[in-house]
User: What shape does this take?
Amino acid sequence: MRTRLIRVAFPLLLASSVLSGCVTTSSTGDAVLNQGNWPLCSAIGGLAGGGLGAIESSAWAAGGAVAGAVIGGIICYAQDGDEDGDGVFDRRDRCPDTPPNTSVRHNGCPYAEYASPAQVMEPDEPAVPVRVELDVKFDFDKSVVKEGSHADIKSLADFMKQYPQTTTVVEGHTDAIGSDAYNQGLSERRANAVRDVLVEQHGIETSRVSAVGYGESRPVADNDTESGRAINRRVEAAVEALP
Assistant: This one.
């Protein structure tokens, strides 16, 4: 009885050993078998089992073939292969055919790639113009630039030098005392006085500075009061540039 068991078990054990080694290699010989290859394992198992059974007798060949096919299919199906070589067995791999050397999660899918801060392109925001304004006050019936206003005029000139594409219009104004014609001429003289400081003292090109007088037509304060009239005796200018 013991001899019979050995004779029965030996071919099956040998077939199992052969198939266990077989399932580590694909049909091309260069990759791990996965569960989709179990029919191939069954065929190889059947041939191996039948061949080993034939050693004992012709009657054993058929039984060996059947047993080898069953064992080969079971071993191959139960084997966890890794066809794409990402370290995750095929049975649990939710992303097959991952490119080589790709870092994957536990389910075989690649990690999400995030751009570095340097790679993130912020949407372009519209540029906000930089604006510099000038407001020079004058004494009554005078067109001479007062000493206290020179610093403000210089600031405007410096800005125009920083942005050489800029131009400006210097606008002269008066209060309401006097005739319209006289005040028109006075406003023009005041505008030209500021323009001369920009051009002659600070080197701004004449083509970049225009002067115009508006007389008493554009008051910004009440001409019925002394404080209001002092505010209206003025020269204004503005320069705007994109940074």
User: Anything to note?
Assistant: Residues 180-201 form the longest helix (22 residues).
